[in-house]
Automatic annotation (TrEMBL):
Residues 44-135 form the Serine aminopeptidase S33 domain. It comes from the Bacteria. Coiled coil: none annotated. Gene3D superfamilies: alpha/beta hydrolase (3.40.50.1820). This is Serine aminopeptidase S33 domain-containing protein. InterPro entries: AB_hydrolase_fold, Hydrolase_4, UCP037442_abhydr.
Length: 300
């Protein structure tokens, strides 16, 4: 099914010796931008899983776990936020989308489009890092029957401690503002594995991270949906995660005040790893541990 104004591309892939289709879509959002999404369609889908990426992380990072999950009856959906990856349609300096737009426009478009294609399937939404924050910015998230947060946190620098707090304060008050002013965007590729961030995305992220109340200090309550979400939420945190300490995890979770929340903290020894970090749960090494548990949670 192709909706008006949308493009679809099909690529054949062989997963577990079965012919399956990855469907590629350009989904229009309300602000006029197009969001590139991939649907890893299960042969006989029983539910959907929409994966919301971390900041500056292209959707390809989540493709292996999507392939794994889709083989057992769950259609997995990944997408790039506007100004990132395949959703970057112009010179990054010309991108007008902000960080909040990623939730209110991009995620809204992906959820609503998924519902139109699969109107009778339950929807689970997985938010990794900032993806778990953006879920609360769209009314469409109320359609989810389950929400899974992975290392999703409140990014205020004061939620860190020790030398990490100093580093976070320095990033948001010195490094990031200078880089944005010099380049006209945040050149993240120069010093990290992140994709470069458009100016308005980086600017808004900086402002949020410099306020004790984070995004809640800048967005009116009527435009937020954290408290309106009442489905089951599973929040996974990782011990020794330098990008999401437990205090920052707790500060975000408390905003989902009317949901049925289950908290799970994962230690490296739980998975027989030396370390996990902020991104390890989505890497191949977690295939037969966390990925399998995640699949069961989505399908339950």
């Amino acid at each position: 099914m192709i909706l008006p104004g949308q493009k679809k591309y099909l690529l054949k892939n062989n997963f577990n010796n079965n012919l399956n289709m990855i469907k590629h879509f350009e989904i229009p959002s309300e602000n006029g931008s197009f969001i590139h999404a991939n649907f890893f369609e299960a042969k006989k889908p029983k539910q959907l899983l929409i994966i919301c990426s971390a900041t500056g992380v292209k959707q390809e990072f989540y493709h292996e776990i999507s392939k794994f999950i889709h083989q057992e009856g769950t259609t997995a959906i990944t997408f790039d936020y506007s100004g990132i990856g395949y959703s970057l349609k112009t010179n990054i300096k010309k991108v007008k989308s902000s960080l909040s737009d990623w939730g209110t426009n991009d995620l809204t478009a992906v959820i609503n489009y998924s519902v139109k294609i699969y109107p009778n399937l339950p929807i689970a939404i997985l938010g990794h890092s900032i993806g778990g924050q953006l879920i609360g910015l769209t009314k469409a998230s109320l359609l989810a029957h389950k929400i899974i947060l992975v290392c999703a946190q409140n990014g205020f620098w004061g939620n860190w401690s020790g030398i990490s707090r100093v580093k976070m304060w320095t990033n948001w008050n010195i490094l990031v503002p200078i880089l944005i002013k010099i380049f006209g965007y945040l050149p993240s590729k120069k010093f990290s594995r992140m994709e470069d961030l458009p100016k308005y995305v980086a600017d808004e992220w900086k402002d949020w991270c410099n306020n004790r109340n984070y995004l809640f200090a800048f967005i009116d309550n009527e435009r937020l949906f954290f408290r309106k979400i009442k489905c089951e939420i599973i929040s996974y945190s990782v011990a020794f995660d330098k990008y999401a300490p437990q205090k920052s995890i707790d500060k975000l979770i408390e905003r989902y005040s009317n949901a049925n929340i289950k908290r799970v903290q994962i230690y490296p020894e739980n998975l027989n790893f030396d370390k996990i970090g902020h991104f390890g749960l989505f890497q191949q090494k977690s295939k037969y541990t966390f990925w399998d548990k995640l699949r069961q949670e989505v399908q339950r």
